[in-house]
Known about the structure:
Helix content is about 50%, strand content about 10%. It has 14 helices and seven strands. The chain has a three-stranded antiparallel β-sheet, with no helix packed on it. The longest helix is centred in the C-terminal third of the chain and has 26 residues, at about 280-305.
Amino acid sequence: YQARYTFNGKRHTLYGNDLKEVQKKLRDVKYELDHGIYAKPEKVTVDSWFKVWKEEYAANNMRENTLAHVDSMYKYHIKPEIGHMKMQEVRAEHIQMLLNKMKKEDYSTDFIKRVKNVVSQMFKQAYKNDMIYRNPVDNAVTPSGKEKKEHRVLTEKEQRTFLDYAKGNEYELIFVLGLSTGMRIGEIQALQWKDIDFKNMVVNIEGTLIKVDGKEYTKGPTKTKSSKRSVPLLPDVAKRLKEHRKEQLKYRLILGAEWRQVAGLEDLLFCTPIGRPLSRSVIYNAIDRIIEQINHDERIKAKEAGRRPEVFEHFSSHTMRHTFATRALENGIPPKVVQELLGHSTIKTTMDIYTHVLPKTKNDEIQKIAGLF
């Protein structure tokens, strides 16, 4: 290959590797112009680099809802502190001040680590691209924020009470499914009838419901590769799902053209009255209303009995997942099986979350060899 050009009135020719190098530089310049960062490396700001890093690097490796969380972390925690600075100006102490500020604002250690990880990935890529001489995040220390709260788990009594009060609720089957399978709420929201295998009595979890501001609902990939799994269906739950399916089909026939499904999310198990995906807020509100009714009735009973009421504390939909895992471990299901049912990538993740179950489980298990002594 060769290329001819004129410079200062003289004809020049480029060959082979020289020509390739010039072409590469031209492509780089075009890229920078297209992304609004045409400037010397020392002039690139954190704001402009975040935009490029997010669109050209992070977007290729993150799920859409994860990317939305990254956007939020940058907007509220990173941008106000260093967004205006030049990439080459940022030093370890700037990162440290950013993290320390979050500690003062009472964020958890886990969340501070996640924000730090976003900053680190940005600067790591900039270092690989020869924009900066070192990654300043490497020398920043994660401060210990507030301790992460222990996961809320329903006691057996609370679980029975909640399900008793949920009877007849339009979302009752969602609660039953969550407490009997340990599925994440996003996985339940994204379930389609093709995912239910009544013959083999399993739920095939293929994805999760994703909603990004300004965009339509989509069925995205599961949280991790191991989250794509099959979970057994209890006979009673399968029976209730079949009944739910019949009622839904009847309703669809009545609505006809008014049934408006979202492309890619056809035939959802749980949806709005016109076939659209359910928002999490609808499910959260349903849980809150049930708990408010439980507490209302408890206050009346306590007053009549002349005692203090036992308050039923509010919980999130994720509590159903933790409750399922706790019941499973309490009843002797091996941790490895629980790991697979939950879709955790490692047994360590399962055990780190459910360490509160282990003391009772160990005491019960050791009794099995008591007769030998």
